[in-house]
Amino acid sequence: MRALIALFAGLVLQLAPLISRSHAGGVLKETAFNENFYSVHIVDERAWIVGYYGAILHSADRGLTWQIQRSPTPSALFSVRFVNRDKGWIAGSYGTILHTTDGGKSWRAQPAGTTEHLFGLAMLDESGGWVVGSRGTTLRTENGGRSWASSSIPGDFTFSAVAFVDQSRGWIVGEFGVIFQTRDGGKTWLKQKSPIEVTFSSGESRNLFALQLNGLNSGYAFGLDGLVLKIRAGNGWEVIRQRGAENKSAEANHLFAAAMSHDQVWAVGERGTLLRSDPDGKHWQPAHGEIPRASLNGIAFGKDGFGLVVGNRGVVLRTGNGGAFWQRLKINSGSAAKDLGRVP
């Protein structure tokens, strides 16, 4: 594996040797609540969290109580997306793709045709979607995942994220700061000029991990050392945040995921990094709350100020006021989530 895969293994996955644990019949026990969590998705009052060793958690009441959903795999799960309250997909390590049609009461594996790690997932609707991952893996489905076909993109890059703003226009980002765009629904992918791209021979790491698109003409990419790029008019990308001589105050922690809430962009990353921006993305401020110094890997917002952040070692943060304050939760199967600061 090349640079980006190694970085995921060291910074995001932090995969330790498997220890003996109960996994009878594909059902994770209480250990699921202490796993490294990598992604979260919210639909109305419902939420799903996925993570290491096949962990899948579900809340039906805006994160107040949580249940473990039956997982058919012990593989690490990196990304979860739902198109409505019932239909969702999960992408993970070793070519894992899972699908549900009943809100996660049952999850079934779909044939990916690859054993590469699948880091990024985007579903356009109930039929169409994309998955990207290691060694240039780019998969597309047009039938809800019953079959996934490989799409050719020049180079052998590891891709971290994929996102679309409509059926035609989408972006992929990843290793060495590369950015690819499609304007024809993925029939062709063209490499865009990236202000941070480096070559393999340079020995530098300039990886991009996440995308947040806000429409045809506005979007952000996030990466190593607190880097943030912004796209303008749907074409050129520019650096709007990075640590350097001119901006020594910018934290250099890597940024792994992002989300939009009203007119604010949010980003999460290593060492408890949880940032919010102004509408233009020019100024970034740390959020307030019970935020541990663990790696934060996923963030999502729902309606009426509801939001969740997930991270390593079972970290789950919740807000009910649009991010004005983040409360750390201690979650247990079938019981109310509690404010960690109030638990003995």
Description:
By secondary structure, the chain is mostly beta strands. The chain has one domain: Methylamine Dehydrogenase, Chain H (7 Propeller), CATH 2.130.10.10. It has one helix and 29 strands. It has a five-stranded antiparallel beta sheet with strand order 25-26-27-28-29, with no helix packed on it. The protein is globular.
Q: Secondary-structure map with pairings?
A:
Layout: H1 3-13, E1 37-43, E2 46-51, E3 56-59, E4 67-68, E5 77-82, E6 88-92, E7 97-100, E8 108-109, E9 118-123, E10 129-133, E11 138-141, E12 149-150, E13 159-164, E14 170-174, E15 179-182, E16 190-191, E17 208-215, E18 218-223, E19 228-232, E20 237-241, E21 255-261, E22 264-269, E23 273-277, E24 284-286, E25 296-301, E26 307-311, E27 316-319, E28 327-330, E29 338-339
Antiparallel strand pairs: 1-2, 2-3, 3-4, 5-6, 6-7, 7-8, 9-10, 10-11, 11-12, 13-14, 14-15, 15-16, 17-18, 18-19, 19-20, 21-22, 22-23, 23-24, 25-26, 26-27, 27-28, 28-29
